[in-house]
Amino acid sequence: MENHSQLGSYENRFKRVTSYIYEHLAEDLDLIKLADIACMSAYHWHRIYHAMHGETLAATVKRLRLHRAAGFLVHSDLPVDQVAVKSGYANLQSFTRIFHSVYGMPPARYRKEGSHTVFQQQQANRSSHMYPVEIKTVPAIQAVTVDHTGSYMDIGKAFETMYGCLASRQLFRPGMRSIGIYLDDPFSVEEAALRSKAGVVFEGPIPAEALLAPLAASDVAGGTYAVLRYKGPYADMRVAYQWLYGEWLAQSGKEAADAPAFEEYLNNPRDTAPTELLTDIYLPLR
């Protein structure tokens, strides 16, 4: 009983800190303040977080801020200085320098020349070979998941919660398959109501401890899938979906099955440059 109580305590601390970070990315996130939210000394909390998440708190905050900034640059017309402020950077100079160091180009140039613009250019040229797509037979999958409601760009919050729970229960293993299941069409459902699930796949039976709240089991239907290999920042991935549904599906002669699409993340954003991220998008087919 004591172990379960201690386990719940650590998981609640992880969840509090994760929620606070996502809700206050545009503000000054003092690391001492985050330690206070976790109800631990800064020295010990930072070490525990690093051990369980594989990156420091400072690295997490930086990664999430730049992910948000990339989303604003791709999907909004906000001026770059406002993107900097909304992403938690006090001045445009520091934002530009940090963004360039991670994304390989300054934010204004990224808006004009990032990977999302390749789609726009090739769409204008009516290219039908933008992304590699394979037809695969996929076995049924049972994943351990955490539910997320809201912008798909913020599903990382559910992933952080899931990884924290698995790590605190000593269930996380390097090389586990990470997937995201997306239940709604972001063009027809209000952003605040979008449903998705952050998940990992265990090799073999799922341990009982992996199914205690907030973790749960979710089934992914087996069958025939069109699998698109996408390379680049997560913020740009929407254009790949537009091409897959709007161009490839119509030209393929295939029909989408009555099941949600899912993504498998083939490398880790904690130690991979955004431009090198690999994602397989699985579209179920009849």
From TrEMBL:
Q: Where is the HTH araC/xylS-type domain?
A: 15-113
UniProt keyword annotation of Chloroplast present: no
Q: Name one GO molecular function term.
A: sequence-specific DNA binding
Q: Does the keyword Transmembrane apply?
A: no
Which superkingdom is the protein from? Bacteria
Matches recorded under PROSITE patterns? HTH_ARAC_FAMILY_2
Q: Which Gene3D superfamilies does the record associate with it?
A: Homeodomain-like (1.10.10.60), Regulatory factor, effector binding domain (3.20.80.10)
Which keywords has UniProt assigned to this entry?
Answer: DNA-binding, Transcription, Transcription regulation
In Swiss-Prot or TrEMBL terms, this protein is called: AraC family transcriptional regulator
User: What species does this protein belong to?
Assistant: Undibacterium terreum
